[in-house]
Write a structure and sequence with these properties.
By secondary structure, the protein is α/β, with parallel strands linked by helices. It folds into two domains: 7-69, 2,3-Dihydroxybiphenyl 1,2-Dioxygenase, domain 1 (Roll), CATH 3.10.180.10; 81-134, 2-Layer Sandwich (Signal recognition particle alu RNA binding heterodimer, srp9/1), CATH 3.30.720. The protein is built from two helices and eight strands; from the N terminus they run βαββββαβββ. The chain has helices spanning 15-26, 88-99; strands at residues 7-11, 29-35, 53-60, 63-69, 81-85, 103-109, 114-121, 127-134. Strands 1-4-3-2 form a four-stranded mixed β-sheet, covered by helices on one side. A four-stranded mixed β-sheet has the order 5-8-7-6, with helices on one face. A hairpin with a 5-residue loop joins β7 (114-121) and β8 (127-134). The longest helix is centred in the N-terminal third of the chain and has 12 residues, at 15-26. The radius of gyration is 17 Å and the shape is elongated.
């Protein structure tokens, strides 16, 4: 048996906007995008959902993140996406972009384990942790 965790995010009608932000701040590429209206499930969604995303895939490095707008949305909970970086400038920039309009749960700062660590729930309700570089303990 091989376990291959796959990240699949749910949104309340703003998947396209979220994936656009993630593509910009993480340097990824949206490799697949299917709207409700262009899918065989078009008849199962209200007309105002025609342009909402049924399924999208964003590739960042070697990792694929799936997402879509769901009709019966529940706020995501019980997980956090963690980004591990070596570049402090990139970590600070990504944190600021994800925090814009979101809720900072742990300010970006030096810790005993990292040069920088911060946690945020972005404006789409997705929780992120940014960890950058190991802190040298004396």
């Amino acid at each position: 048996m091989q376990l291959e965790p796959r990240i699949s995010l749910v949104f309340n009608g703003d998947c396209d906007e979220a994936f656009t932000l993630y593509q910009q701040c993480l340097g990824g590429t949206v490799t697949f995008r299917l709207t409700w209206g262009d899918s065989p499930m078009a008849g199962q969604a209200p007309p105002e959902w025609r342009d909402k995303i049924l399924h999208a895939t964003l590739t960042v490095g070697g990792t694929a993140i799936s997402g879509g707008d769901v009709l019966e949305y529940e706020h995501p909970q019980g997980f956090q996406l963690q980004l591990n970086l070596d570049d402090v400038g990139a970590a600070d920039r990504i944190f600021r972009q994800l925090a814009d309009g979101g809720n900072v749960t742990h300010p970006m700062q030096q810790t005993f384990w990292a040069q920088r660590f911060g946690a945020v729930v972005d404006r789409f309700g997705i929780p992120w942790a940014i960890n950058c570089g190991e802190q040298k303990l004396a």
